[in-house]
Design goal:
By secondary structure, the chain is α+β, with helices and mostly antiparallel strands. Among the domains are: about 120 residues, Butyryl-Coa Dehydrogenase, subunit A, domain 1 (Orthogonal Bundle), CATH 1.10.540; about 100 residues, Butyryl-CoA Dehydrogenase, subunit A, domain 2; about 120 residues, no CATH class. It is built from 19 helices and 10 strands. Strands 1, 2, 3, 4, 5, 6, 7 and 8 form an 8-stranded mixed beta sheet that branches. It has a two-stranded antiparallel ribbon with strand order 9-10. Strand 4 and strand 5 form a beta hairpin. Helix 7 runs antiparallel to helix 8, helix 8 crosses helix 16 and helix 14 runs parallel beside helix 17. The longest helix is centred in the middle third of the chain and has 40 residues. The radius of gyration is 24 Å and the shape is globular. Bound molecules: flavin-adenine dinucleotide (FAD).
Length: about 575
Amino acid sequence: MILHPKNETFEHLDPRSREIMLKTVEFFESKGKKKLKHDDHERVWYTDFLDFVKRERVFATLLTPAAFAGGDDGKRWDTFRNCAFNEILSFYGLQYWYTWQVTILGLGPIWMGNNDKVKQRTADLLEDGGIFAFGLSEQAHGADLYSSEMALSPVADGRYVANGSKYYIGNANAAALVSTFGKNRETGDFVFFAAQSDHANYECVKNVVNSQNFVAEYALHDYPVTEDDILSTGQEAWDSSLNTINVGKYNLGWASVGICTHAVYEAITHATHRRLFDHSVTEFTHIRQFFVDAWTRLVAMRMFALRASDYMRAASTEDRRYLLYNPMVKMKVTTQGEEVINLLWDIIAAKGFEKDTYFEMAARDIRALPKLEGTVHVNMALIIKFMANYFFNPAPFPEVPTMSDPANDDFLFKQGATRGLGKIQFHDITLAYDSLDLPNINVFKQQIDVLRQFLATAAPSKEQADDIDFLLNLGELFTLVAYGQLLIEKAKIDAVEDDVVDQIFDFMVRDFSRFALQLYSKTGSTDEQMALCLQMIRKPVKDTGRFERVWQQHVAVLDGAYAMND
Ligand SMILES: Cc1cc2nc3c(=O)[nH]c(=O)nc-3n(C[C@H](O)[C@H](O)[C@H](O)COP(=O)(O)OP(=O)(O)OC[C@H]3O[C@@H](n4cnc5c(N)ncnc54)[C@H](O)[C@@H]3O)c2cc1C
């Protein structure tokens, strides 16, 4: 149920995609752990990886939409196969994933725009092994995109000069094209244009971070821009910034899954062989509990991300449910990743600091994912808009199957206006929740019933609704319900065994109780709300046999199952 790169055959993918995945695993296993860690410690720019990407035409194949494939039938933008690539890269190191991720972000405004000349140029640059960058953030403005100061000043006849700087921009040192967001100085309209990082008027000022990645500040000094470089303007430019993030933020969950997977193998192998007081560390009951929690949380992260991909690939102007599940992959899966690493680190303790472990990188890097591409708060604030329709105004939808077909994800590049989120409808959650009869799902359903009652009879007042802190907590409970819904759907599709599903809902019940207590404890909660919060606090159903089976059959067996080549 989790990736084992040396055993995985990628049979679920077509031959060209399979070849890419296998060769990527082979690249890292041949590079070996010693060199991987050396490059991390010495902050070596990953030329070897980028050479591999160029030689094997990896980004060209995975990131060129079918419309610009030029007859190469392996080229398409296919979220299903990109999941596998995301997972492999982060399994070996977030830095390798990051250069791919910011390339995806950089390509977003290009493929979403309406400039065919740049699109063709981009397809050629990808074929040449080019990487890309996404110049959205500015040092002074963070999440406040409205205040962007990068300015495009008209000169004459469709020619402009760009002035301004961007901050925290991955790949900005070497990108073939940097999709840059700014404003037309004359009209105030938003604009996206492509800049070349090797142009004389483009200055890569510095690397803002101390890592293998280049997360740069760059400045444009009277940088010449023509209509040929403009990707989109006005509302389209604005929409393509947010729609690009919609595509990109999904990958962050996979980065967390890959990191946690490698860390689990290291942790269980270390703990099983560590003997204290004449016992293996894994004989301690709390250690077993931590491991079972870490593994079930990881399995749930992966199941949710896979199911969310189905909704992304099935999306259309009539079905925008992905706009709920996608931010959840970003903020829920990535924060679950932090919990997994916390649990594992409490188990392996000092070992997690050692410089020759993967874990040392995992402990550092897992923190990044919740913070990138909109913080957890920004994404939570976004999904709260869906809550009323989600619970009280469902709509019928055809069932979405596993979307594994080798097709181009056209809709992701024409998602349209980013408005109207409050109008989006979802399918009835009882379809999933009533489809499995397991002890902890049944407890969880009782918790959901009380939450519904809370929203129907003790909904936040105007004052509470203006208090983001209060809403964030309520949002955590809502998130758990949607998380559980997709987990059940995925469990049914993949026939995941009952023991595993019920053990997953063991932590889901505990998490629900924790967030209910937090909401209760808010100084602004009313007596009625507090009473309902107390009713939400439940305990999972104890089943020692189920716990032992999950521990023995799924977790303990991972001891020694995978080690990266030296
Ligand atoms: C390693 C790294 C790589 C990055 N790569 C890129 C890149 O390639 N391209 C790029 O354009 N950017 C990149 N970024 C920037 C990243 O996207 C920003 O960090 C992010 O947009 C948030 O901005 P900020 O961190 O400055 O936080 P701020 O915007 O300063 O936010 C401060 C606090 O306010 C909260 N907040 C802000 N707005 C809201 C809201 N509406 N509702 C609720 N809470 C809110 C936030 O949650 C946060 O806690 C990168 C950042 C890092 C660290």
